[in-house]
């Protein structure tokens, strides 16, 4: 099973289409960790900012999408996006284990650790920071796919995530290059 992971599109139809045409073209599911349409008061307008067009693309997508509501997602956004934005998180079962999808603005490290243990989470996905992260702690893989439209951090470049049957990867959107990967070997 191939799962595309994206977050913080902030209304950029250009970023969505780039992800769909490169990394997500052969996925069976897409997980969006929130901040779908609105760019937010602290962010500049991203390239390709077209919220109604992005909403149409999401609604027309033939690949199933699961969305976790972000801090910039509003009730008005839910009116135009037909896919339910789940809050505060969504749980998804996959052949290799359970994943938890959340935006990431609500939980401190103690709550994250406790929820990961309580729900036996194999992959914890969050966004919010726009900074890509992939690491394993205590049997849980933590993935922040960064942002395809408004990347931040020292080595800022548009990124997304990809989960396959054997690994979780961070992918540079412009080149399709895997920046980092962690094996999905069985939990110990």
Written overview of the protein:
The protein is α/β, with parallel strands linked by helices and 188 residues long. The chain has a single domain, classed as Purple Acid Phosphatase, chain A, domain 2 (4-Layer Sandwich), CATH 3.60.21.10. The protein is 19% helix and 31% strand. The chain is built from 4 helices and 12 strands; from the N terminus they run βαβαβαβββαββββββ. The chain has helices spanning 13-21, 51-60, 75-80, 109-118; strands at 3-6, 29-32, 65-68, 85-86, 89-94, 97-102, 121-125, 133-137, 140-144, 159-163, 167-172, 178-183. The strands form 2 sheets. A 7-stranded mixed beta sheet has the order 4-3-2-1-10-11-12, with no helix packed on it. Strand 1, helix 1 (13-21) and strand 2 form a beta-alpha-beta unit. The two termini are 22 Å apart.
């Amino acid at each position: 099973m191939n799962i595309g992971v994206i977050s913080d599109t902030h209304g950029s139809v250009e970023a969505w289409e780039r992800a769909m045409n490169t990394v997500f073209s052969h996925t069976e599911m897409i997980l969006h960790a929130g901040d779908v349409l609105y760019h937010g008061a602290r962010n500049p307008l991203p390239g390709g900012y077209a919220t109604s067009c992005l909403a149409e693309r999401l609604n027309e997508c033939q690949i199933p999408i699961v969305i976790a509501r972000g801090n910039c997602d509003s009730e008005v956004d839910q009116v135009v996006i037909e896919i339910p934005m789940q809050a505060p998180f969504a749980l998804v079962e996959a052949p290799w284990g359970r994943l938890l999808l959340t935006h990431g603005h609500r939980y401190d490290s103690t709550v994250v650790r406790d929820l990961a243990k309580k729900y036996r989470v194999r992959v914890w996905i969050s966004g919010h920071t726009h900074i890509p992260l992939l690491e394993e702690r205590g049997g849980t893989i933590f993935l922040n796919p960064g942002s395809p439209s408004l990347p931040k951090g020292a080595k800022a470049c548009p990124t997304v995530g990809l989960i396959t049957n054997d690994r979780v990867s961070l992918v540079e959107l412009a080149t399709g290059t895997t920046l980092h990967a962690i094996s999905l070997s069985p939990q110990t």
